[in-house]
Fold this sequence. Notes:
This protein has helices at 8-12, 28-40, 58-63, 68-78, 88-91, 109-112, 116-131, 143-155, 185-198, 203-210; strands at 3-5, 18-22, 44-48, 82-84, 135-139, 161-165, 217-225, 239-247, 250-257. By secondary structure, the chain is an alpha/beta fold. The chain is globular, with a radius of gyration of 18 Å. The model has no long low-confidence stretch (mean pLDDT 95).
Amino acid sequence: MIEVIKSVDDLARQKYDLFVPTMGALHAGHQSLIKLAKEKSDQVLVSIFVNPLQFENKDDLAKYPKTLEADLKLAELAGAAAVFAPSYEDIYPGEITKIEAGAIGDLYEGKSRGDHFSGVLTVVKRLFDLTRPAAAIFGEKDFQQLFLIKQMVKQLNLPIEIIAAPIIREVDGLAMSSRNVRLDEAGRKSALIISKALNKDSISDMHEVLATEPGFTLDYLEVIDEETFLPATVNTKNKRAIIAGWVNGVRLLDNKRMGSSL
Length: 262
């Protein structure tokens, strides 16, 4: 049976090499992160904490799925040694000192979601302080989040390696997300337009594909430089297309490494 750590005091008495922070509602994408961590160490800790600071919409926070018992089983099957399931008071015991995400945090997801990335960085830094891992693993699906966490670790000189894990997709191409369970059958079909668009070679072709699906509302589509998160140019070596939008009120995002085209 997997160990469940619910208090900061209990956590402080133990040491884990690899850390996989999550908000629960685990799926195969999360399991892939845990399995990757397990390949590197037997001491893998998974955290489950739904962080209110990164939700700009209270209704979205209220609807976020909470499936702790199922999560524990999935984490154990994937190879986690323990799960840290703290309370709000454990994470934020007093006045909260927020970590600002900076200029990049105000773009794309940040532009649409207010203080979202400030909330993400604040909780990740707090979790790092509590868990003290040698390395932490984050998925590439939330690519802007991954970029900003790497930037924070570098700026604060934290002794933690950040490991990026590839996006895990459903058989039909939809990027795995805890939000997918909120899509009905029609919404699920509409959401497939995202991965179809990302399979195109240029941003103009992507826009053309997206325009064919009335059930999808685009927020942004951009090709960025992976090293700076600024818009890519023809000379950019590592280009990545990033996309976000809504299907029936459910926000979805995805991304994919690009070739030489724009």
